[in-house]
Amino acid sequence: MVVCRLAIDRRAPHTYTQTHTSHNQAMNAIDLLMNHRSIRRFQSKPIEADKMERILNCGMRASNTGNMQIYSIILTQQPDNVAALSKLHFGQGSTAPAFLTVCVDVNRYHHWCRLRGCDEPYDNFLWLMSGTVDASLAAQNICVAAEAEGLGFCYLGTVMYNTRAIADLLQLPKGVVPVVTLCMGYPAEEASLSERLPLEGVVHQEHYHDYSDDDIDRVHRQREEFPFNQEMVRQNGTRNLTEIFTKIRYPKKDNVAISKALLEFVEQAGMMNNEEKS
Ligand SMILES: Cc1cc2nc3c(=O)[nH]c(=O)nc-3n(C[C@H](O)[C@H](O)[C@H](O)COP(=O)(O)O)c2cc1C
What we know:
Elements: H1 23-34, H2 49-60, E1 71-76, H3 79-88, E2 98-105, H4 107-115, H5 125-148, E3 152-155, H6 163-169, E4 176-185, H7 213-225, H8 227-236, H9 241-249, H10 252-268
The chain binds flavin mononucleotide.
The site of flavin mononucleotide has 12 residues, from strand 3.
């Protein structure tokens, strides 16, 4: 059933209209971030429209390149459409009442430029990257707001595996590339906190300090000893955790095939015009 294991009150009053954040609110934000867990099973209860609107508005407030908002968000909530989309994500999110597909979108900006008699200069790799960053920041704002509202979510990287079919289903025009998908709803599971690398394994003081073998051992020790990961290694009969990733979850063969299909998609979407036209 329900699922709020956290000591913090996820239903804490929100003050979206306030201009200053109090110390208590800042502490709540830290607690919220430090207790994040991906949720993969959801109650059938739909997300209230006013709640969804608040969450989406939080996404809008994310920093973005030039304040141009080179992204669009496709919100899928009709059960038939959710089912079709979930199928394209290999059944992931099948219990979720909502999917959000965040896309790089130069189509809208170019249309505006055209109407105002300007060039359309954003159909290239730079803007694919910039739009991907912007889409990700908007998505993460949405995620944090969703958790603050008592919802759960999971990112679905499968948007990159089945991009063409997902784009067709969502009727995306040229210049629109789906890059981030979230399934979202009220949690129907108690997820445990997953492990992270220690800070010293990720943060470099002043310049990059390349890792010695001992550093690599030390930085990954906790991860390798994490009971869930040890169980995964045992169940799959692999030699170690890296083999789970490189042989089973994300092997080279799949990476190459998916990369090729993705590249073909962004070319067809008209986002790889990297030469200046004469
Ligand atoms: C870009 C991205 C893609 C992801 N894709 C999937 C996915 O396809 N399926 C899934 O179950 N989890 C997916 N996840 C969730 C990660 O597995 C999860 O964030 C990670 O294991 C850490 O767990 P936590 O979010 O509970 O802290 C994805 C996360 C990100 C950021």
